[in-house]
Amino acid sequence: MEKPTAFFAAADRVLLGVLKFVTITLFCVLTAILSLNILNRFLPFTSFHWLDEIVELCFAGLVFYGAAAVWMRGGHFSAGDWISARLSSPRAKSLYRAATELAGLVFVLIFFRYSWQLAGKAQESTAVFQIPKFVPYSCMPVSAAIMTVYSAIRVVAEIITAAKGRSSDRQIQGGNQK
Asked: Where are the domains of the chain?
């Protein structure tokens, strides 16, 4: 049982590393081209007629791949875990956490369905670089699939913990998972 656990832990680290790298790279590209565009307004030296296409591509990937990375770590926004702190039973705490994770799972499943449809229906290409619109739209179903897997794992883990009559001692507040 140790080898599968080690494999999934390594896969988790690699996936998170890739998402962080892509997100940081897209942010740097976005910063550079927008800075050049600002400089070009004061010292006009060329036309950036292609700027909108690259900005759209960078923003889409930055937002959705970044959201998937945050979702993987449980760092997404929450209003706090004030309900489970008031629950005395460890089983009730785990069932409450399972319910909140299940709500998140339903959300990402709906997001996956509609983003998959949107990406699939994208037939046109961008004007300058002729990038198929599927490319910038593909970050939505990919990130939704990643979020779905992690939400499903959390739901199952909380249900197993509740069945054992224990609490996972995991806080729901974003970024504070133990």
From this structure: 2-163
